[in-house]
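## tool: complex_structure
## caller: assistant
## args:
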Amino acid sequence: MDLKQQMRLLAERSRDASRALARRATKKKNGDLLEMEDAIERNVATIKKANAKDIEAGRKAGLSSAMLDRLILTDRRIMEMAVGVRDVAALEDPVGKVISEWTRPNGMRIQKVRVPIGVILIIYESRPNVTADAACLCFKTGNAVILRGGSEAIHSNLAIAEAMNVPGLPPNSITVVPTTDRAAIDELLKLDDLINLCIPRGGEGLIRTVAEKSRIPVIKHYKGVCHVYVDRDADFDMAEKIVINAKCQRPGVCNAIETLLIDEKIADKFLPRMAKALTENNVELRGDERTRQLVSNASAATEDDWYAEYLDLILAVRVVKGVGEAVDHITKYGSAHSDAIVTGNKATAEKFLREVDSSSVFWNASTRLADGGQYGFGAEIGISTDKIHARGPMGLEELTSYKFVVVGDGQVRE
Amino acid sequence: MDLKQQMRLLAERSRDASRALARRATKKKNGDLLEMEDAIERNVATIKKANAKDIEAGRKAGLSSAMLDRLILTDRRIMEMAVGVRDVAALEDPVGKVISEWTRPNGMRIQKVRVPIGVILIIYESRPNVTADAACLCFKTGNAVILRGGSEAIHSNLAIAEAMNVPGLPPNSITVVPTTDRAAIDELLKLDDLINLCIPRGGEGLIRTVAEKSRIPVIKHYKGVCHVYVDRDADFDMAEKIVINAKCQRPGVCNAIETLLIDEKIADKFLPRMAKALTENNVELRGDERTRQLVSNASAATEDDWYAEYLDLILAVRVVKGVGEAVDHITKYGSAHSDAIVTGNKATAEKFLREVDSSSVFWNASTRLADGGQYGFGAEIGISTDKIHARGPMGLEELTSYKFVVVGDGQVRE
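## result:
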């Protein structure tokens, strides 16, 4: 059997599993998840042994220490994975939920009901805990999942999935692609008759490649070039707190800000104190001309800086002529991820919230709050930068589709 | 400027239009739609003149009379287009609607609000009235639209779009691709940084090609292999009425049935009368062995018949061992479009409605009712056979995305 046939067989088995999973009752799925938790805990030694193979191979292949650190599974990390699975058992099951219902003049009653999507392919890089996280979210929502992690984590991923496929589950509910051959991805991405959705998680390059090759619908998680705009009517203490949080609390993630926009009306008063606070937090500043007049330690920002996703303690700073120019800047340079305004003026805030076309827009709150957990979704499979199906933080509901259930008493089309 | 640059420029202009349209108030958009209606009515002569060019070219190219009939724009068809545009003005605007809202323990208030998708590319075949229908639905939902119709209708489509781009509209709100060069589609389908969604409408070949080439998310409208299953507990009069309607009322459309499944328990009583009624309605029958024992004029169905979308007065008929086998048949051979059960037994119906994974499932009603108009959506851009973003009949809501609007009073991530 060649790779193409292998991948087709694998996907067919997942499709069969998805049909059984779609009919599985919530209570049963929750019981399964608790068994998965147990199984992970019981298999710590096995998982660590598999992980040691990956670490060994990674060392030989010359992976950086940061990469190796992401790869390593300690007792604690494995226990955290298990707890994560248990937490998903406690979440509400969206499957079967009636989204809306109505009756037509001819008496037929229509319900729009949530159903699983079917088979979901998740392609991701490095960290093996994603295997457990993604698998249990797909399982909870009645979907079969095909997981394709980084080749450097193959043994760890296989061991985690083996533990999670507890007895009694529909066979092949959770499948890790058992080969590191890159061509396997190409073959899988052609199977639009068997796989319903692909979610790539990782760097921009991975996501672009997947989007380009895939015949399966893809939900993309691109970069976050996020902004805070501090308006003339802002409370300065609040603004400073929000900017520091949005930049410094965790600079390496997509909802951290990369550019600070300041209203010209308050630039001379606010910018020096803000720059001081940022500098105290080890943030390197790159400013436009007006910023550099007010902040001595800011270097000159180039056009590229406005587009940059630093993912680091670097911040581009620009002085703008009020909310209109702030919106224009965000529209031109931003990535439509998460953007915030700080202002005490309701009309100004409403203009910003309406006109900035980002997946999350904030008034007087930090962009770092753009997150499934913070929004109360209980779990998050990622933050979509697409506008189709799911936008922004994706929770369990976004892993479902729907169908129309129509009940009549003999209605026909006239 | 080569074709690639031309298409990029065209899409950039649509993107700019989409930004203006997203901010346009509902009242203003409704006024625009009424002006479009007027403009179509005022331009009947111009549109007919353009259409005459297409008809002339079509005759020379040897188009079939059916094709020419689909292409021709009579006064009546143009007036119907205009009325269709007016009807869309009267529909509720989904943009700005709050889908859900909640407050988090930290006090931040979250609203999930409907917003336009952005730029929508619609690729379709033949009938020029689709130009007006699709354009006004996209416009109403604040989206810019790029329309690429069949090359045989290019003059008609350009004339319709020219009439609809009434003064005062954001420039390039409605764009018909001004070339019949097929390579233009390939170029457009690469522009995932400018175009947010592609909806191909037409034959399976067109849709497959688009899905294969596109980097833009695609919502597909594939075929309908629909079924009625008549259960042992069915009311025979109701079953006969539903089957005749589902097969004969308009056999050439996707929600007409192609296969009839009959419970073995009632086959000898029900099938002969059903076959008689179908035959009286000029339906050719192709049956399995049991059917042929009971119905003398049924020919033998082959394996291919169970997969077939006849779109014609032909019906495949199979006797099954109750609802379980009916579900299995539909799962294996169906296209997950629209399927119905006729039964007086609630438990049997519920099993069917739950286990048949089709975009619409009916209990005691005709599959022909799977339609945006029949569901009360007011308008329909198509019937999606995908499970991502939109499934089944797509109305105005399905032409929108959403964003999270978060209001706080200084909240940061802890």
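## assistant note: The first strand of chain B starts at residue 98 and ends at 103. DSSP finds 16 helices and 16 strands in chain B. Handing back to user.
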